[in-house]
Amino acid sequence: MVCVLHVVEDQRRQAAPSEQRGITAMTFVSGQSAFSGPVSQGEIPSAVAEHILEVINVVDEAPNVKTFTFRSVGTAPLTYEAGQFITLELPVCQGPIARVYTLSSTPSRPMSVSVTAKAQGASVGTRWMFENLVRGSVIKARGPSGRFVLGDSGAKRHLFVSAGSGITPTMSMLRWLSDATPDVDVVFINCSRTPEEIIFRRELELLDQQMPNLRLGFIVEKPGSFEGWSGLTGLLDVRKLNVLAPDLMDREVYCCGPVGFMRGVQTVLDGLGFPVSHYHEENFAPIVAEPSDAPAAETSSIAPRVVRFNKSDAETVCAPGETVLSAARRSGVQIVSVCEMGICGTCKVRKTSGDVQMTHAEGISDDEVHAGYILACCAKPVTSVEVEA
Ligand code: FES
Q: Are residues 277 and 342 in the same domain?
C-alpha cells in the first residue's frame, strides 16, 4: 500500500483559524490585554508564568520565515522543555493580541529563547513581528506550555517527522539532544515545498556531521530551480518512510505539521501496526466533547450552580453548559485566556470546591487536575464551585 501524504500548509488553519502559528496562532478573544488578568505568580502552574522579553536578534531562515531570539528582562530565565510553546502579546494597531509560537531554541542554552515564525499572507501577529520587532524591542510573553516534549520515555531511537514550519519543535528537540546526548540515534525527516523553503537546512547539515547517529531526510514537492538537489522529491509515503527509517517500529515518533499531514503519518503508522503509545504529535485540534452516556437531566430539576470567584469577591449562577470562563466574564472577573479550546493552558485556575465537567485538549496535566486546577475555558460546573480568580 502506498499512502500519499499531502503537505498542504493551509490545512493547518483547520486548527488555527486566525493565523498560522510559527506554527500555530490562536485568537485572543476577549479583546483585552492577555497579560493584565488577576493572575498571581506562585499560586499558579508555571504554564501561565509571565515574562518580559527583549529581542536580541532577528535572523532570516527561509522565505517569509524568521527566527526571533529573546532574553528575559528583569526575571529569571524562561525555563522550558524542548517542544513547548509560549504565548506572545503583540500590540498590533487594533489592540493587543496573543499568538502562540513553538520555541525553536534548546533549553540547554538558557541565556536566550527563540521562536521561528512563518508569516502567511493573512497573518496579522506574525506580520507585525516581521515589521516591528528589532533588537531592543520588548514584548510580554506567557508560558511555557505544551506537552509535546521528549519527556523521560527512555527511548533510545527517535523519529522526528515534520512538514514546513512544523519543524520548529522537532528542531528544538534535536538541538537539545545534540547538546545532551549527541550519540543518540535520530532520524529527522522534513517535508517542504521546495529546497529553498527548508528551514534550518544548513544547521541540520552541520548537526549531521556532528551527531554520528543522526540521519537526515529532506523531501521536497518540487526541486524547482534549485541546482543540484539530490534529495527525495514528491510527497512522503510509506515507501520513503521505510527507506529513511527502516527500523521505525523501534522508534519513538514525534510528528508536527498541518493536521492533514499528521493524519497521513498516523494512517501510515497505523497500517504498519505501529504502537500508538510511541507516537506523539503537536495537536492543536479544538476540543471535541465526549458523548455522555448519562441521560439528559430535566433542567428544572438541577439545583442552581453558583460560581464563586474568591479573589474578586464575586459570584454568579452558571447557566447549564456554561463555562467558568464565560461566567467570569459576565461577572466582570478577568481570567486570562488565549485559545479557549483547552490547548494553551493560559486560563488555568485553582478550584477550591465543587465539581466541573471538563473536556480539554491537553492544556492541563493530570497532576494539575489532581492538584485542583481547571481550565476555565472548558470547565462546566456540575455543582456550585469556588475558584481562585
Ligand atoms: S484559554 Fe487556552 S486552555 Fe483555556
A: no
Contact 219, 265 (CB under 8 A): no
**Rounded Cα gap, residues 186 and 161, in angstroms:** 11
Q: Classify 14 as helix, strand or coil.
A: helix
**Nearest CA among 145, 136, 199 for reference residue 26:** 145
62 CA → ligand 1 middle, Å: 31
- Ligand 1, atom 3, lies closest to the CA of 342
Q: State the closest ligand 1 atom to the C-alpha of 363, by its place in the atom list counted from 1.
A: 3
Q: What are residue 307's phi and psi, to 5 degrees? A: -105, 120
The predicted-structure confidence for 268-316, as pLDDT tens digits, reads as follows 999 999 999 999 998 655 444 444 433 343 344 456 789 999 999 999 9
Range of the domain at 356: 303-387
pLDDT tens per residue, range 90-136 = 999 888 888 889 999 999 999 999 999 999 877 889 999 999 999 99
CATH code where residue 346 lies: 3.10.20.30
By most ligand atoms within 8 Å of CB, the mutation choice from 26, 343, 359 for ligand 1 is: 343
Asked if residue 269 and residue 172 are part of one domain, the reply reads yes
In a domain, 1, yes or no: no
**Which of 35, 338, 351 for a ligand 1 pocket mutation test, highest count of atoms within 8 Å of Cβ?**
338
CATH number reported for the structural domain that contains residue 130 in this entry = 2.40.30.10
At 168-227, the pLDDT tens digits run 999 999 999 999 999 999 999 999 999 999 999 999 999 999 999 999 999 999 887 666
Q: Are residues 23 and 106 in the same domain?
A: yes
State which ligand 1 atom lies nearest to the alpha carbon of 26: 2
Complex prediction ipTM: 0.99
Beta strands in 206-332 (DSSP E): 214-220, 232-233, 252-256, 279-281, 305-309, 314-318
